Amino acid sequence: MSWEKETDEIRRRRDLAKRQGGEEAVKRHHEKGRLTVRERIAALADEKSFQELGEGAGVPHFDEEGNLVDFEPANYVLGFAKVNGRRIAVGGEDFTMKGGSPNPAGLRKSVYAEELALTYKVPLVRLHEGGGGSVAGSAGKGNARPLGDPVFSTPRFRSIAQVLGEVPVATAALGAVAGMPAARLVASHFSVMAEDAQVLIAGPKVVARALDENMTKEELGGSEVHSRSGVIDNVAANEEEALKEIARFLSYLPDNVWQRPADIETDDPRDREEESLRDIVPRDRRKPFNMRKLVKAVVDKGSFFEMTRRFGPSLITGLARMNGKSVGVIANDCHFYAGAMTAQAAQKLRRFADMCNTFNLPILSFVDEPGFMIGSASEKAATIRHGTAAIAAVMQSRVPWASVIVHKVFGVAGAAHFGPEGYVLSWPSAVTGALPVEGGVAVAFARQIAVADDPEALRAELEEKLAAGQSPFPRAEGFSVHELIDPRETRAKLCDWLDWVEPRRAIELGPYRTTMRP
Predict the structure, then answer these.
(1) pTM for this one?
(2) Which residue has the higher pLDDT, 394 or 446?
(3) How far apart are CA 3 and CA 210, in angstroms?
(4) For a designed S-S bond to 234, which of 155, 192, 280, 400 qualifies (C-beta 3.0 to 4.6 A apart)?
(5) How far is residue 328's CA from residue 340's CA, in Å, rounded to a whole number?
(6) What is the pLDDT of residues 184-205, one digit of tens each?
């Protein structure tokens, strides 16, 4: 007795599953300029590395004689793959079937994605395009009842939350993403959105019916909206670029919290001195400078990977390498509110610090902080609450911090740039104090200025005197910073520091049990 019939049927079902929603559905998808989920996985993963799980999950269709004539696969594709030689778990909705809204087998596979990453301790990548479930019960089935999950079932969000504390999670919005897939998209350490994708709590028809707001998907949740709302981290020009960003993000992180990121060979000398750094900060404190150029001049060449650029733009966050070692980077951008900490910037800092703590990444802070953003809009945004929460997250850090006072650091917000037991370097361009010079003079000498014969001349004189008193040399003389350095020495000093903290990191290595928020 042979099992040929059954083994032939296994192969037949697999072949039918590869058709996804069928030739016409795939064609329509391609005509929109989109890849199918299988094409996306192939573009992300190393060649021929994808090992699918649950190929046989779905609904078979038989003729009257019991012969298999068709097979409707689960519309969530899931499995293992390798990215740059590293194993990952990867999954995504198949939009060619039901617009990505899960069929029963697809739902089970999507729910299993987090469990898979948790079980095998590998990074998780989700490639999203689709909506949540359909409305239970229909006009055509009057007796249908929305039963829901049993009361003893495991909450679906438990593993989604748990995975954030154990392995890197990277997600992409590659079309319209709504409902539960949208929630899973943001439950990640890094999210990227194709420029023509949308992320929605609910689609235009639901919004119009509920709120009488008539908007397109793009107006509701396009990349212009969500790159500034903080829902996603980065925007990519197209799907292929989005997948490249995910691969690059993963390259800075370990497979899980029990491992360390791999060091990368570099030919960038650790003692490289960039001449431009000496003069990058203008002597006129009112003139801005390019902080990104500064960061890129210090870290390994070509290694800076910025995240969440358009949200909270007065703060720069990203990943980089120093002498081949992965680090987190924060810095102020004085082109936005002079670098002041807004409510959005504080939220951005808190989330980024959580991620670095989770994966044991040392943090480099390049400081040009004038303080919390002031004014009525800032008060309405609860800036002081968000800012204080960000400071608390920094103070709870277990990872090493090195802070470089590049220009200014004033007020309470300055505390968000210095980790506990941190290493502090100062440039000669640094100025520090309770308030910026202009604000300090305005508060302390208001009466004298008001009655002066030439108020503006007196104001300028007082500001110059205060500025002279904020010189970094007395702080260095009093050992209030570890070193006052030539800016060109910054890279070498930080590379040395990373070597010093290696024994500490080895002792403390382990899961950082932070509450990693989406």
Answers:
(1) 0.89
(2) 394
(3) 57
(4) 192
(5) 20
(6) 999 999 999 999 999 999 889 8
